[in-house]
Amino acid sequence: MAGVQPPPPGAAGPPLAQNPAHRRPGGVHPPAPAEVTLGFDAEVDEGQSHVAVLDATGGRLTDAEPTRVGSTRLRLPLRIDGAGDYTVAYHVTFADGTTSTGAYRFSAGTGVAPAPLDDAARQASTNVVVDAHGHGIDGFSAFLLFVDGVVLVVVVALLWLRPRGGRARSLRIDESRA
Known about the structure:
Number of strands: 8
Order of helices and strands: EEEEEEEEHH
Oligomer: single chain
Structural class: alpha+beta
């Protein structure tokens, strides 16, 4: 059973401001919003943060990445063509290295409040942005890692083959002992 835990000391919490706001009465928006904005109480690291707007099937409405507005807000432009319930999922990294991950729903053009997010839907929504957070290793770093491995092998081989007691050790098989 998963519980909600408070953020560690110094960690930023959930958004202080969000548009479209799910806290409007029922999170109902007659016209579809043209963007999603999230505001936090800490400086946001734009390059490490991800925001996604998902439709009822879990599909992304845009592949765009959010842009930073000021130092504490993220903005994601979007285009919603039909009425329905939509989920905003976010994984935000702050300048101090802390993170905030979450999701909320809003409805556009339906006139009714969105269905609430249960734990499974919340987890599936946030997995979309957390999985997108897989910043891989770049080619240069991979090359340096390979060179480090080769140097390690050479150093170990040299240490193993160094002379002991005045005689150099050899990798050749001594046939006179056989």
